[in-house]
Amino acid sequence: MKAHIHVTLKNGVLDPQGKAVEHALESLGFDGVDNVRQGKFIELNLTETDPDKAEAKANDMCEKLLANTVIENYSVEII
Amino acid sequence: MKAAVIVFPGSNCDRDIQVSLRKSMGDEPLMVWHGDSSFDYVDLIAIPGGFSYGDYLRAGAMAAKSPVMREIIARANKGVPVLGICNGFQILTESGMLPGALMRNAALKYVCRDINLRVEANNTAFTQGYNVGDVLRIPIAHHDGNYYADADTLSELEDYNRVAFRYTDASGNQAVDANPNGSQNDIAGILNKNRNVLGMMPHPERLADAELGGEDGKRMFDGLVAALG
Predict the structure, then answer these.
(1) Residues of B in contact with A73 (CB under 8 A)
(2) Which residues contact A27 (CB under 8 A, 6 or more apart)?
(3) Exposure letters A47-71 (e unless 16+ CB within 10 A, then b)
(4) By the 8 A CB rule, do B74 and B39 touch?
(5) CA angle A44, B69, B126 (to 5 degrees)
(6) How many CB pairs under 8 A join A and B?
(7) Given pLDDT bands bounded at 50, 70 and 90, which one contains residue B37?
(8) Contact call for A16 and B94, based on CB within 8 A
């Protein structure tokens, strides 16, 4: 199975990189852009065949390493 | 006093700390490779600056999970002093030994220059060589030193005098311009609840010799030797 993991900064945590991207988009003439947030996308293969177990495993990976839960949220999609 | 300096792949301030400790201790610190899960008893563990594991994923994230860190956490819980400088501070927050996180500098730039620091707490082994209110000149060199913690954590740090150092101007006054990275409350270094773990972004080991232009950092290492024998 494949896991698609998104790691994003929590609401309320300032994202200077997102802000810089937002300003760059504005300066390119893209108006109406707001609240740009930059995050990470991690893809990995799992030998596990049970989707629930695969999801539990990926969640555990996020808690222990892939996300810093002090500042980041994560979401896991098993496909 | 016996001390250990932890070496990760990508550490680059390990030898600076080794030299600083050697000068203050008059003895050779133990250099411990990250893969070692056990090492001799020591009175102080120093986690140096650098780019452990290339700062992959997040600065300090991989090092925080290495075998040697399990041993360091166990010893810190028993009261052994642990000093983390720069990447060492990032490793301490990533491992949960200190609260909060070190995010990308607010201006998104790597900053490498001398800054001023005000000593906020000297009732610790690390800072007893200073007086509260002393203004030090110490170099910083980092891209991810922007200290962040939620409001409850920040109040706890402030209420229990767990902020050890704050960025200030040369007169010791806090100012927006004197904060090099956007850290909340101008925080440059914090202590754990038991005050035996200190994490700080500035590099005292880089200004611990008159020949390098200053000795403000040396007082930390001399103070540690005085406190820990």
Answers:
(1) none
(2) none
(3) ebeeeeebbebbbebbeeebbbebb
(4) no
(5) 135
(6) 37
(7) confident
(8) no
Strands A2-9, A72-78: pairing kind = antiparallel
B203 is catalytic: yes
B5 CA: distance to closest CA in chain A (Å): 24
Q: Classify the C-alpha dihedral B19-B4-B13-B219 as positive or negative.
A: negative
Collect all residues with Cβ–Cβ distance below 8 Å to B191 and sequence separation of at least 6. Answer: B98, B121, B124, B162, B163, B164, B197, B198
Question: Rounded distance, CA A46 to CA B120, Å?
Answer: 49
Q: Do the chains contact at A68 and B101, CB–CB below 8 Å?
A: yes
Nearest to A71 among B65, B101, B107 (CB): B101
From chain A, pick out residues whose CB is under 8 angstroms from the CB of B61: 65, 68
Mean per-residue pLDDT over chain B, rounded: 96
Cα B42 to Cα B19: distance, rounded to the nearest angstrom: 17
Res B183 pLDDT > 90: yes
Reply yes or no on whether B13 is catalytic: no
pLDDT tens digits for range A21-31? 999 999 999 99
* CATH T-level assignment (fold) for domain B3-228: Rossmann fold (3.40.50)
Q: In this complex, do A16 and B106 lie within 8 Å of one another by their Cβ atoms?
A: yes
**Domains in chain A, CATH or no CATH each:** 2-78 (3.30.1280.10)
Give the pTM: 0.95
Which residue does chain A place closest to B99, by CA atoms?
Answer: A70
What is the ipTM for the molecules in this complex? 0.87
Q: Is A17 on the interface with B (CB under 8 A)?
A: yes
| pLDDT per residue as tens digits for the range A52-74 | 999 999 999 999 999 999 999 99
